[in-house]
Each structure stands twice: as C-alpha cells, then as structure tokens.
Specification:
This protein is about 45% helix and about 20% strand. By secondary structure, it is an alpha+beta fold. It is elongated and about 160 Å long.
C-alpha cells in the first residue's frame, strides 16, 4: 500500500474506533424499536436505520483492523532494524507506549512505559519524553543529553510515519561513536592514536601483538622503529591527509626479530583529529624475506667468487708456467733456483686459495666416487688428531648400518678438516670435539636453514664442540667468504665457505645449531650413494722425452697463458699454431691443406666459445682430438665431452708438465 495513504488511514481508524461502538448501539436500538407494533411505514424506516448503522459499524471496524495490521507490519520492520543495533532501542506510540524493544533495551531497561524507563535514571522524565516526542513529530528527529544518576542518558528519537517513534537510549558515560567496547574482541588488531602520537585505544588482538598491558598508553615512537625517518612526520602526513592511507612494515622497539605491518588512516568526525591503525604481525613474512635475501646474497657472492677465481686461475697458469720454463734453464745449485722455487711454492698456495673460492661457488672440479664414511673417518683420524693438538680430544662415534655416499673423497676430507679446525679454535681452553655419523630417512621435506631438504635417505655427519658458540647476529654470515670472527692474521675467512660450497656441490645440506657459551653443532646431510659410473681408468704412464711431431692449434684469449703453453709445447717438439679467438682459429682451418692433430682451446672466450668452434671445425676434420682448458670446473660444462668425441678437460692452473703429459696422451 502507498505510504502517502497510510497516514490518512491511521487518522480515520483512530476516529472510527470509538464511533464503531456508538453506531452498533444505535443499530441495536433501531432494531429493537422495529419489533414494536407500529404502522408499516414506521417499521420499515426503523429497519432501514438499523441496517445502515450496522453497515457503518462494520466498515469502521474493518478500518480499525486494517490500521492495526499496518501498524504491526511497521513495528515488525522497526524490530528488524533494531535487532543489530548495540544501543537500547524502543518503538513506541505518541503516548510512550512500548510496542517493541531490542535485546540491549531488554537487558538494561525492561519493557515498561517509556516514561518509567527514563524516570529510573533522569528526573522529570515525563516532561523530557513529551518535549522530545513533540520535537520529533515536528522536525522528524530530536536528541538530548539528559542529566541524572550514573551520568544520565543520551536519548535520540526519530519519527516513523505519523503515529510511531523510534527511541535510542544509552548511558551518557559511554563513548559516542568509537565502539570501543564492541571492538575489544574483534579478531583484527586495531589501535587509535591521538594527534600527538599517544595511544588512546588498543583492542585485545593489538595488545597481544604489541605486548602491552591494557592500561598502558605508549606513543607511536615508543612502540615502533625502523621507518628510516621520524615517525612523527609519517603520522602528520596521515593527519593532514596528504596521503589517504599509509602502510609500512616496522620493527617493535626492543624486539630485534618482531615486525608489524601497520596501516594508518585518519578517523573522520568532530573534535581532535585521531588516527586508526590496523596491525598485522609480519614477523614470519620478514623472516622469509631475510632468508630469501640471504640466499640471493650467497648466490651472488658465489657467482662473484667463481668469476674472480676464473680470472686468477688464468694469472696463476701464466705465472706457474713461466716459472716452470725458468726452472728448466736453472740447476738446483744456481743462485736464482731457490727464488724460483719460492715463487713456485707461493703459486701453489694461491692455487689452494682459489680452489677454496671455487668450492664455495660450487664450480670446483669433482671426482665423485662411492665412499664408506667409516673408512674415510678412520683414515683421517690421525691427521685430525694432529691438527687439534694436545688440549683437545677427538671423539669418533659411528652409527650402525651406514649407507655409502657419493662424494669427492679429497673434498670430503677437506670439509672434515675445516670443521674440526673451526671447532678447535672455538675452544681456546681445550675441550672435546665429537664427530657422530648415522643413517637417517626423511619421509617428508625437512627445513634445513634457508633450504628445504627433500625426502629420502641421507647419512648425517655431526661435528660438535663445547666452545664459545656463535652469536645470534653472526650465525647468518658464517658461510660468507672472508667473514671471520678471528683476529687479523689468524684466518682467511674461507674455511666455512669452502665447507658450504663442497656440501652444496655434492648435493647435500648443512645445518648449524649454536648456543653462545655452550658450543656449536654442524650437521651435514649427504644423500645416500646410488649406482655410480665406473671410475675412469688410470692414465698410462707417460714418457717425458722431448720427441713429438704433432700439429697443435692453440686457441686462448689470455696472451700470457697462450705464450707459456706455446713455448712449452714447442720445447717438446710439437708444431704449434696460435689463435687468440675462435674466429681466428676457424680462419686458419679454412686452409684445406693444413693438417691439425690436436685442438687445445679455452672454453669461455669473447665471441664464439670453445665447444662451439670445435664442433664446427670437426665437421671438416673429424679425426682431430681436443683438450678443453678452463678456470671453471669441468661440471660447469657437462655436455661438452658427451657431445664432442675424443675430447678431454684440463683445469687451470696447470703446470708445464701437466700440459705436455696430457698432450702426449692425446696424441698417443
């Protein structure tokens, strides 16, 4: 029914309600009079009057029923609106009769007449009710703070239609508009800050994140740090609405590893400006981010270390080679011989350092074999005891039924030596180093540092000490090259980085547990060794005579290395053709009359790389053999020897003897 018609129906019903009874009485009276014997005309008139009065009474009664039905529907609609309101709400008529009340109203006030509800808290309740009702009827709505006991009441009244009112009542002491009581148990951390940065409200979820008591009122600056600029400036930007919403990840002050993502927005409304903050615990997110950054940093350092090692290997090859050439022209009793030997020995030391860098970057040449750990540890025990000295004891314990592992025996011994030396240095007053081994099986992936170890069979090697331990702020850096806690001159900082690189290159994982003041435990997990290819046959003994008639094409972009190699090979009687790049080599091979028995080429060069030009050259000269040389590891180019027949690999730095012996084997 149209809302504009309803007020008229309501007014008509209010007038008709008392008239209905009067009309019924008149109808009964006229009907009774008609029963008296009158003239026929008079009887007929009385009967018509009785029927008329009865019809009018019935119509007016129906009007009353319709009006009451409409009012019931309206009250039902109000009830649905009031159901979700947290304030006490009453639907009343103009006289204050309560038609419906919501749950908060029933809890706080009951369902008596509205005058008595208000009168329980406020003096002159009848006057206040009439005044507010009159203003609402005239203006559509009215509100007032009514003084009284317990702080009084805040009352809001709104006209609904022409004859009903909606009252909202709450104690005046409750904060208006902030809903603090309702937000206390919301499962989202909510905080409000005043304009000066002081905390004015924090619900339970926020207090748990901030680790504060309910009565605490710290400032924004006292709670957070790590923005990179004053927090007051950030708060001012939000208050002045220079940014609509601001979100940052900050660290809880006094908690090095606790982070919170905080989003600020100015609260609308009159009065002093305030800011609403939504907090999200970001500690796990920052931990993952730190682990990812650490992984990226280690990878970048590994790439840098591998590149530096490659360049140094070229330099060391040239120095070592020319030193070998000089040694060939001097006898042990010459004055310069001792100096040359000193150069040669220092080159070997530098080669060892470069090998450690390559191990960290996982680009060291490996000779994988099936290894029994008990046998390796037994063989290494004598050397390890000599390394740790008399004040430190070595305790070896083997688990039962150890599986063999797949590793480079020499590198595995290097790993054990580095870990044992590191444990010894952590116990300056002496102690015990314990090495345990055991077979373990993981059915599901297992977190291991920054990596996830896949399920499978592993052999665990634990090296534990009772030394000073590793500080928490340094444990993430211990595998970085050149990072050391030792004094200047006592360590290179490459010991643990070498361990890390070898373990990773072997396909294993390493885990560190350390407690400052109690010691550290390094646990290495090596995959169970499966079927391995047959080991390479030992190279036949090589005669080191000076004969030889092979024609060799030497391709090397580093001039010092090319110069040394060419001189060494010519001294052995070979014919050597030199090229500084792949394109120059192919240009030489354009001469179809030129016979070449052996290619010696660097793998990585500007322009076309070694494997690419060799493949092209072998199309016309399939009988030629190839020696690849590089400062990188052999497994960096896993498909070179598989796809190129009659090829071998010689890692840099190589000596004069190693080069000439390998050439003689290839030409044999």
């Amino acid at each position: 029914m149209d809302e504009d018609v309803m007020p008229e129906l309501q007014m008509a019903a209010r007038v008709a309600a008392p008239m209905t009874g009067v009309l019924l009485i008149c109808a009964l009276g006229a009907g009774s009079a008609a029963l008296i014997p009158w003239e026929d005309r008079t009887t007929l008139v009385l009967l018509v009057m009785a029927m008329t009065f009865a019809a009018l009474a019935i119509c007016l009664g129906l009007l009353v029923v319709v009006e009451r039905g409409l009012r019931h529907l309206r009250v039902q609609r109000l009830a649905r609106l009031m159901e979700f309101d947290t304030d006490a709400c009453f639907a009343t008529d103009l006289d204050g009769g309560i038609a419906r009340a919501n749950a908060p109203a029933l809890r706080r006030f009951g369902t008596d007449k509205l005058t008595r509800v208000i009168g329980a808290h406020v003096a002159q309740a009848q006057l206040w009710r009439q005044t507010l009702a009159s203003r609402a009827r005239h203006d559509g709505a009215a509100s007032a703070e009514l003084p009284g006991t317990g702080g009084g009441l805040h009352v809001t009244v709104q006209r609904i239609g022409r004859w009903d009112l909606l009252w909202r009542i709450r104690p005046a002491a409750e904060p208006a508009g902030d809903g603090a009581a309702d937000l206390e148990h919301v499962p989202v951390a909510l905080v409000t800050f005043e304009g000066d940065g002081s905390l004015s409200f924090a619900n339970r979820a926020a207090r748990e994140i901030l680790q504060i008591e309910p009565a605490a009122a710290p400032t924004l600056t006292e709670l957070f740090e790590g923005l990179g600029r004053p927090l007051g400036e950030w708060l001012a930007e939000v208050l002045e609405e220079r940014v609509p919403t601001a979100s940052e990840v900050l660290r809880l002050r006094g908690h090095a590893s606790a982070y919170v993502q905080i989003s600020l927005r100015r609260l609308p409304g009159p009065g002093a400006p305030r800011v609403l903050a939504v907090l999200i615990d970001a500690t796990a997110l920052k931990t993952l981010e730190a682990q990812f950054n650490q992984s990226q940093k280690m990878q970048a350092i590994g790439q840098l270390a591998g590149g530096v090692a490659h360049d140094f290997n070229n330099l060391l090859t040239a120095i070592s080679g020319h030193c070998d050439l000089l040694l060939l022209r001097h006898q042990p009793n010459d004055a310069e011989y001792a100096d040359l030997m000193q150069i040669h020995q220092n080159v070997n030391r530098a080669t060892s350092l470069i090998a450690q860098l390559l191990a960290f970057s996982r680009k060291q040449t490996q000779v994988l074999e099936r290894i029994d750990l008990q046998e390796v540890l037994a063989d290494a025990a004598h050397l390890l005891n000599r390394l740790i000295g008399a004040r430190v004891n070595l305790d070896l314990r083997h688990g039962a039924d150890l599986w063999p592992v797949q590793a480079d025996r020499r590198q595995l011994e290097q790993v054990l030596m580095n870990l044992v030396v590191n444990a010894r240095d952590a116990m300056p007053e002496g102690g015990t180093i314990r090495i345990d081994t055991e077979a373990v099986n993981f059915a599901t992936p297992v977190p291991c540092g920054n990596a996830l170890m896949p399920p499978g069979d592993y052999v665990a090697i634990r090296v534990a000490d009772s030394g000073m331990g590793i500080p928490e702020d340094q444990i993430d850096k211990i595998f970085e090259p050149f990072f050391t806690t030792k004094r200047v001159g006592e360590g290179t900082g490459l010991g643990l980085s070498t361990v890390y690189g070898i373990v990773k290159q072997t396909g294993g994982f390493i885990l560190v547990n350390s407690t400052p003041g109690k010691g550290s435990t390094f646990t290495i997990f090596l995959p169970r060794g499966r079927d391995l290819p047959a080991p390479r046959a030992a190279a036949p003994a090589v005669s080191r005579g000076r004969g030889g008639t092979g024609v060799i094409l030497l391709v090397e972009d580093e001039a010092p290395v090319r110069s040394f190699a060419a001189r060494a090979l010519r001294m052995r009687g070979h014919t050597v053709l030199e090229a500084d790049c792949a394109e120059a080599a192919l240009a030489l091979l354009d001469d179809a009359t030129l016979r070449v028995d052996l290619f010696i080429t660097d793998v990585v060069m500007p322009g076309m790389d070694g494997p690419s030009w060799v493949r092209k050259a072998l199309e016309a000269r399939p009988e030629a053999r190839t020696i690849f040389v590089s400062g990188y590891a052999e497994d960096t180019f896993p498909d070179v020897q598989v796809k190129i027949a009659n090829s071998t690999f010689l890692p840099k730095p190589f000596s004069l003897t190693q080069l000439t012996d390998e050439v003689q084997i290839r030409l044999a």
